Q: What sequence folds into this?
């Protein structure tokens, strides 16, 4: 019952989605700490129909960029994103534990109610036999 509840509870599903979102944000924010490199390669080939000669032109380029983090902004953003990710992990764990506790309490209440019902039926049968 607990496994079914954990798999189908919307609060747990939302908490898991929040973890995925926070993890992705941390990955993006953490990437700003490293240089970026972009590369491009292009090639053009042409042939003249008149004389049958061909030409080929190739170009390649690499662009690298890096923003200096003089005041620690990128590190602070990365640290904040990591803390958000960890907080969402703890929130999800808390949501799971709360759900398990609620299910356990409901089962114990049901067992106690069934026991009280059986006792009430025995008391009623005993009272009917006494009359």
A:
């Amino acid at each position: 019952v607990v496994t079914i509840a954990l798999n189908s509870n919307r609060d747990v599903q939302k908490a898991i989605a929040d973890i995925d979102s926070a993890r992705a944000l941390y990955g993006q924010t953490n990437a700003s700490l490293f240089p970026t490199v972009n590369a491009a390669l292009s090639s053009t080939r042409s042939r003249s129909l008149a004389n049958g000669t061909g030409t080929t032109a190739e170009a390649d380029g690499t662009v690298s960029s890096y923003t200096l983090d003089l005041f620690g902004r990128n590190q602070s953003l990365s640290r904040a994103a990591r803390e958000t990710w960890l907080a969402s992990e703890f929130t999800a764990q808390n949501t799971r534990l709360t759900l398990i506790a609620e299910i356990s309490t409901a089962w114990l209440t049901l067992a106690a109610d069934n026991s009280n019902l059986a006792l009430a039926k025995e008391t009623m049968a005993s009272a009917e036999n006494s009359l």
Observations:
- Helices lie at 2-8, 10-31, 73-130.
- The beta strands are 36-47, 54-65.
- Residues 2-35+71-130 form one domain.
